Amino acid sequence: MKSVIISGGSKGLGKALSNVMGNDGWKVLTFSRSIEESGNEPNGSVFTMRADLRLDRDIVSVVNRANMLFGKTDLLILNAGTIMECRNVLESTVADLRRLFEVNVFANYYLMRTFLEANPNGTVVHVTSDAARQHFPGWGVYGASKAVMDFLIEAVAAEEGNLKAFSIDPGDMDTEMHRIADSSSDREALQSPEAAALKFYEKLKEVLRIE
Ligand SMILES: NC(=O)c1ccc[n+]([C@@H]2O[C@H](COP(=O)([O-])OP(=O)(O)OC[C@H]3O[C@@H](n4cnc5c(N)ncnc54)[C@H](OP(=O)(O)O)[C@@H]3O)[C@@H](O)[C@H]2O)c1
């Protein structure tokens, strides 16, 4: 049986993906700031823990907890992320950039490093966005933060011979993050996080070459 840490399991894609993978035999530990703690009794096959990605000590606790529960952890999915209401790059402030980069880049970087120190044979998957590769008006600062993390993931994979690290784009989803960014978008046109999680898991298995 395989084990995974998924960041941001209180809602949206992280919650749905935790359930999909838990139901497919993975041992899952997911965390966020608002999630209800499972303690030593998983909800189904998903352990939950309250932790804030922005706090180094919380990241260390998450990685240690997963290895206590699972012995070692095979996979890290960097799913948690943050956004702001869409505004053009020149209408954004340095504080906006700091807030988005703090979670989407610095905290993700520290979680990846801490995870790989504890699990040198582990695999890392970053949940990215099409906004990291294309310019959509208003999404530039967010897209830049996702692009930086994509680049770090590619660099790590290139530098560390045997290490597997990838980014996967789940596509647009009807989640709180999307509503914060653009409350006027047509929600009917967006996929549900549950549907996105099923597709994401199929892509993940393809990339990891697992059945
Ligand atoms: N929605 C889209 O259309 C879309 C499209 C492409 C890519 N993505 C990417 O998909 C991923 C998931 O997004 P989503 O739409 O599912 O967002 P969401 O519903 O807003 O969920 C975000 C998750 O991240 C957690 N989180 C945020 N800040 C955190 C922190 N400091 N510490 C710990 N957990 C934190 C939140 O939990 P708490 O609030 O409880 O901490 C929540 O569980 C993100 O990486 C996003 O960039 C989204």
List its traits.
single chain; 211 residues; 6-stranded parallel β-sheet; globular
Structural write-up:
The longest helix is centred in the middle third of the chain and has 25 residues. Helix 3 links the parallel strand 4 and strand 5. The chain is an alpha/beta fold and 211 residues long. It has one domain: Rossmann fold, CATH 3.40.50. It is 45% helix and 14% strand. The chain is globular and about 45 Å long. It contains six helices and six strands; from the N terminus they run E-H-E-E-H-E-H-E-H-E-H-H. Strands 3-2-1-4-5-6 form a six-stranded parallel sheet, with helices on both faces. The two termini are 12 Å apart. It binds NADP nicotinamide-adenine-dinucleotide phosphate. NADP nicotinamide-adenine-dinucleotide phosphate binds next to helix 1 and helix 5.
Large-scale geometry: globular
Low-pLDDT sequence parts: none
Helix/strand-derived category reads alpha/beta
Largest sheet: 6 strands, parallel
Please give the structural blueprint.
Layout: E1 3-7, H1 12-23, E2 27-32, E3 46-50, H2 56-70, E4 75-78, H3 94-118, E5 123-127, H4 140-159, E6 164-168, H5 176-181, H6 193-208
Parallel strand pairs: 1-2, 1-4, 2-3, 4-5, 5-6
Helix pairs in contact: 1-6, 2-3, 3-4
The chain binds NADP nicotinamide-adenine-dinucleotide phosphate (NAP).
Q: What would you say about this model in short?
A:
With 211 residues, this protein is an alpha/beta fold.
